[in-house]
């Protein structure tokens, strides 16, 4: 009966293992049509999921609502230190005391980052990648930077790094988890 939230849920794929174990699954995404599609996919698979429009910095749920918060490759869409801080504070707000978060974000060994133009510390303009070209993203410079940042908001923070090869692309990610006091 635990409550799990996926921030930037897309079609809800990250929630399926939790739904299969009986968790109450919630997802938010910035696109209304994706939210509607996630609801249809869940219904068609026999799962119950509640999906709503929202973002990293505006989660439409009350304080202390969730046991677990997932954010898979969405936090780097923030384009400034201020908006990133607001997003992490929002993650903390909706977690219950003792609740945990897990997220992944672009790491140093990711092709999107290698092709991007560094504008200033942590701020990169996406170049020669895809539909995101021209957008500014927030990338942590090192896993230690990410760890130190998260320690300001959560306890028991752990950070790791994963690199994988997907066809011709190298995808490198920082993985992080921690707990709300």
- The oligomeric status of these chains comes to single chain
Radius of gyration: 16 Å
Portion in strands: 35-45%
- Strand count, sense and closure of the main sheet? 7 strands, mixed
The percent of residues in helical segments reads 25-40%
Pattern of helices and strands: EHEHEEHEHEEEHEE
Straight-line N-to-C gap = 21 Å
- Secondary structure: number of strands: 10
Q: If helices are DSSP runs of H or I spanning 4 or more residues, what is the number of helices?
A: 5
Q: Mean pLDDT score, rounded?
A: 97
**Unreliable segments of 5+ consecutive residues:** none
The strand order across the widest sheet is 3-2-1-4-5-10-9
Q: What structural class do the secondary elements suggest?
A: alpha/beta
Describe this structure as you would to a colleague.
The chain is α/β, with parallel strands linked by helices. It is 25% helix and 38% strand. It has five helices and ten strands. It has helices at residues 16-20, 32-44, 81-94, 111-115, 143-151; strands at residues 3-7, 24-29, 49-53, 66-72, 95-106, 117-120, 123-125, 136-138, 155-166, 169-179. A seven-stranded mixed β-sheet has the order 3-2-1-4-5-10-9. A three-stranded antiparallel β-sheet has the order 6-7-8. The chain is globular.
């Amino acid at each position: 009966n635990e409550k799990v939230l996926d921030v930037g849920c897309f079609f809800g794929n990250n929630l399926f293992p939790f739904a299969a174990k009986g968790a109450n699954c919630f997802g938010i995404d910035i696109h209304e049509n994706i939210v509607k599609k996630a609801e249809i996919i869940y219904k068609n698979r026999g799962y119950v999921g509640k999906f709503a429009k929202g973002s990293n910095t505006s989660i439409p749920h009350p304080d202390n609502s969730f046991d677990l918060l997932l954010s898979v490759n969405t936090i780097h869409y923030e384009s400034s230190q201020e908006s990133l801080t607001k997003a992490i504070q929002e993650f903390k707000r909706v977690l219950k005391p003792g609740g945990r978060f897990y997220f992944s974000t672009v790491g140093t060994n990711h092709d999107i980052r290698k092709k991007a133009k560094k504008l200033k510390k942590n701020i990169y303009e996406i170049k020669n990648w895809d539909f995101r070209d021209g957008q500014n993203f927030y990338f942590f410079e090192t896993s230690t930077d990410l760890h130190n940042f998260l320690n300001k908001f959560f306890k028991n923070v752990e950070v790791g790094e994963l690199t994988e090869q997907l066809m011709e692309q190298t995808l490198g990610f920082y993985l992080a988890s921690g707990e709300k006091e």
